[in-house]
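ABC transporter ATP-binding protein: structure, please.
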Amino acid sequence: MNNKALLSMLRVINHAELGKKTFLVGMTCRVIERVLEILPILFCFYWVNQAVLNPVSSTDSWLISAQDYFLVLLVIFLVQLIFSYFGQLFSFSGSYRIMQSYRVKLLNKLRLLPLSNLTKAHSGNYLRLFQEDIKRVEGIFSHVAPDLISALVAPLLILIAFTYFAPWYGGGVLLAIPIAMFGMYWTRRKFQQVIKDKHLAYQKSANLVSDYLEALKTLRLFAKTAQWLDKIYAHLEMTKQQSMRLELWGAGPVVIYKLLLELALVFCILGVAIQFDDQQGLVTGTLCLFLLFKLLGPLQETGEYLTMLRLGLESEKKLDEVMNMVQLTEPKAPKMPSGFEIEFDKVTLKLNGKVLVNELSIWVEQGAHIAVVGASGSGKTTLLNLIARFADPNFGKVKIGGLTLPEIGTNNIHDLVTMVFQDFQLIDASIVDNILLGNHNATIEQVQGVCKMAHCLEFIEKLPKGFDTRVGARGTLLSGGQRQRIALARALLKDSPILLLDEFNSALDAESQQLLNDICKKNFANKTLITVAHRLDSVVDADLILVMEKGQLKESGKHVALLEKQGLYHALWQSQYH
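Here you go.
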């Protein structure tokens, strides 16, 4: 175990708040257990030497009879059993507490990260972090580290003591250990690269399979399933090859490590055969060899543990990258604004080198109904994300009621702001659980009230289980219109002063769209409402229309005035309705 491994383990332990002392006690018990495991051989050596090879007639001599030796073995066994029990108990419970605390901190870290950071990678990558990588790190603490340290420390302590009595044999094995370890150390960089290549290949294959399942309807309709499957098969073959390389570079150094340790034992056997020519010497030498053989057993195990440790450390590196991501800054004393007007003051946001909004300056009066329009990629949704503080701008300030968003704090912002997304963001739970996300303290009467306002109470009551009906993953057990109205009911239940609508009416027919507009006018009349819309006929009654292009505000005004300008808004209108 090198410095990097220790630093990696210490990073996890430092992040954790529970289980540290319990884990260390368990590790200590495991080491003592390993030492006790070897003690019977030492006493056997002592007993044979005193009672068989050098018998004495003194009745005061200790450990002369077989009964004495049996009694000592029994005591050692009982003590070993106690340390084994508590070692397993404390090391396992301590490791699981450490990892549970680590998981909680990692989840809290993700909660405080800008959502723009999370969208840089495929969503499946974060799923694998929690399903696979964190499980490997947990394995370091629950199995690898306790076994590795006990298998290494206990034999080394006894070998050092043994070297004092038999310097040639003990010293020879002690010399062989660093030589064998060097083979493991020499291959570490290649092994780390192979691990990365394997993880990358596996990640690409998993992402392809996930994308294939997501787009299966489209692929079938366009007769592209065969081509996509060929692509998946090619990546699966690459993953298999990388897995085989990993096994080769993982098992090869371990085999060499074990062989070098066994060679040390072979040389010791030859030494005994050459050095001792009488019966007493051979018995003594044989006992020495038996002890060395017993000591080499746990030492050989360390090679396998080191390979498992390397795998776990690569996973810890990925988790540590998430832990070190820059999170949203939060105020020590959050403030609540007295008003709800919204201001963008020369706001610029860049992500992955791409400018999403550029020096954007906007003023939205409290209670105004604002529409944001523009071509795809013009920065409309980014504007909403900045108001909800899903990301902080690189330059400029976003303000609510005269206070910057970092002054207000994320929790207060999310109390002030409700957002209805284009994909509605329903979870795999009951209808009532999805609506109660808006306000967990709401009564069933309040839930029914907002459902009535959102025109979804009628269809819910017709369902066999009513409000207890599960919506399925992403709400797929409901129609698009039903999902939309449940999302709207949830927003009504939260009753925030600022409501953001992100193209959530884009898939509606004209009648449903008019119904939605009526719902918004009736129930959000006194709220600051900002709607991102693709269909311009849905926002003709807005108090102000903001026209975006390439992250900049190109035009603003009411519908009729913008048409009269004959500018970008007029061109968009003409493209849709003429």
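Notes: The mean pLDDT is 80.
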